[in-house]
Design brief:
Elements (H helix, E strand, L loop, with lengths): L8 H33 L2 H37 L3 H36 L4 H16 L1 H16 L4 H24 L3 H27 L14 H33 L3 H37 L3 H38 L4 H16 L1 H16 L4 H25 L1 H32 L1
Helix pairs in contact: 1-2, 1-6, 1-9, 1-10, 2-3, 2-4, 2-5, 2-8, 2-9, 3-4, 3-5, 3-8, 4-7, 5-7, 6-7, 8-13, 9-10, 9-11, 9-12, 10-11, 10-12, 11-14, 12-14, 13-14
């Protein structure tokens, strides 16, 4: 366990964020390797299919991850206040609610996935690949839920290293099994999906076993599962706030993906590759935001509001420096990386992917503070504004898909998210300032 209420904020935040960053980067590197293996040993159509279905699976998985991050906020509050009895009750409630939500999402997604892919105008050339891949991924949502719940509980009490180690082991399994299942056994795109499930199971089980063996003090007791309405109400509202925040954004992404799919399989392939690069770059900023959620939650529990303000200032400086480094790397190496991922010499695909990546990275100076402010507001217990910012992003994506993409094509797609980031950051800045004034009056 690690107490984030002491020490120089910038150092504390970065030391907590670095294991998160490393874990997410390795996870994204796996996604890149996964795409490379599929594009090399199956086909460009199979590669495009992974991208076309990713928005659906990512929406559900993102919701569960956001949900469990939200559940971890009351846990971190209790840890900061040294109220371990209530902390165990919050963990028990998180287990119950995660199980219920996971079962519902798994059943509904498997029933309606084919209809969803049709609504997204998935190109007929990749529909068979897309359906085969995504059904396997959706069937394993429970494995993802186990890892996310355990990892977020550990992070709430200051341990961001153990989830990293468990994730790294899972990533190694994933890459090895990808090669074995796809190339060795000839299971094609289904092999990549099965490799992902096994890796998720390994990460989740290792994380759970570590908690059982080393963190017995946070394991709920029988009485911890006794129902308390106020506690469950707080968990539900906090969890749904962060879960919906991710889900709502992804709903807009799903609508946008439908517009992208209508531009043809070459653009789908280009966007799949560009998003692989985009995802690994945003991890560097996003993990500082995640660190801020725990940092703010613990310090609010300890009654250290001035330290929260200082932490926010330090975090914004950190993500600004990170953005400068990322921009240099993207412009210098982006084309080479994208050519390697796609395994193609199709200049239209490569040029489109490079354009999207470069447009996005220039607006990271806005995206970084957005992550910091949104996660800080969550840690402060402000549940509505972060969700409203996500609704705003969804609206911008829907408008873009309806109006801009038909006129400007893939260029319209590239500018959609940056425009939404500008509006969201303005909203979150106003909410943060108002939240500080409200907190001072309490």
């Amino acid at each position: 366990m690690k107490d984030l209420t002491k020490g120089y904020p910038a150092k504390v935040i970065m030391m907590f964020a670095l294991p998160l960053m490393a874990g997410f980067i390795f996870q994204q590197l796996y996604n890149i390797c996964d795409s490379k293996i599929v594009s090399t040993y199956v086909s460009t159509e199979a590669f495009a299919a992974i991208g076309a279905t990713g928005v659906v699976s990512n929406t559900l998985i993102g919701f569960i991850n956001g949900l469990t991050q939200g559940f971890a906020i009351p846990v971190a509050n209790c840890f900061g206040a040294s109220d371990f009895r209530k902390m165990k009750k919050n963990i028990a409630g998180s287990i119950v609610l995660t199980a219920i939500v996971t079962v519902i999402l798994t059943v509904l997604s498997l029933i309606f996935i084919e209809d969803i892919l049709m609504l997204l105008r998935t190109p007929t050339e990749i529909m068979q690949y897309a359906t085969a891949y995504v059904k396997i991924i959706l069937a394993g949502i429970v494995l993802t839920a186990i890892y996310n719940l355990c990892a977020n509980i550990l992070r709430a009490v200051g341990d961001s290293k153990t989830p990293l180690y468990c994730l790294l082991i899972g990533v190694v399994f994933n890459i090895v099994l990808d090669i074995l299942f796809v190339k060795g056994f000839g299971w094609k795109i289904q092999g990549a999906a099965y490799a992902t499930l096994v890796a998720q199971a390994v990460s989740g089980i290792l994380c759970l076993l570590y908690i059982i063996k080393r963190f017995k003090d946070i394991i709920p007791e029988k009485e911890s599962f006794d129902f308390e309405w106020d506690l469950y109400k707080n968990l539900i509202t906090t969890g749904l706030s962060m879960g919906l925040m991710s889900c709502i954004v992804n709903i807009g992404t799903i609508v946008l993906q439908g517009a992208i799919n209508s531009l043809g399989k070459d653009i789908v392939a280009a966007h799949t590759a560009a998003r692989r690069v985009f995802d690994i770059l945003t991890v560097v900023l996003y993990t500082v935001g995640i660190a801020m959620t725990t940092f703010v939650s613990q310090n609010i529990g300890a009654g250290k509001m001035d330290r929260v303000r200082q932490g926010v200032r330090h975090a914004i400086v950190i993500v600004t420096i990170e953005t400068t480094v990322l921009m240099i790397l993207c412009f210098a190496l982006g084309r080479i990386v994208l050519m390697w991922i796609t395994s193609t010499d199709n200049t239209y695909i490569i040029d489109s992917a490079v354009m999207y990546s470069r447009v996005s990275i220039m607006f990271f100076y806005i995206l970084g503070p957005l992550f910091i402010l949104r996660c800080t507001l969550q840690g402060l217990g402000r549940k509505v504004i972060p969700v409203l910012s996500s609704v705003l992003e969804m609206v911008v994506k829907v408008v873009s898909a309806s109006l801009l993409v038909p006129v400007f094509g893939y260029v319209g797609v590239a500018f959609t998210e940056p425009v939404s980031w500008i509006f969201m950051t303005i909203l979150l800045t106003i909410a943060y300032v108002a939240g500080l004034k409200k907190q001072d009056k309490m």
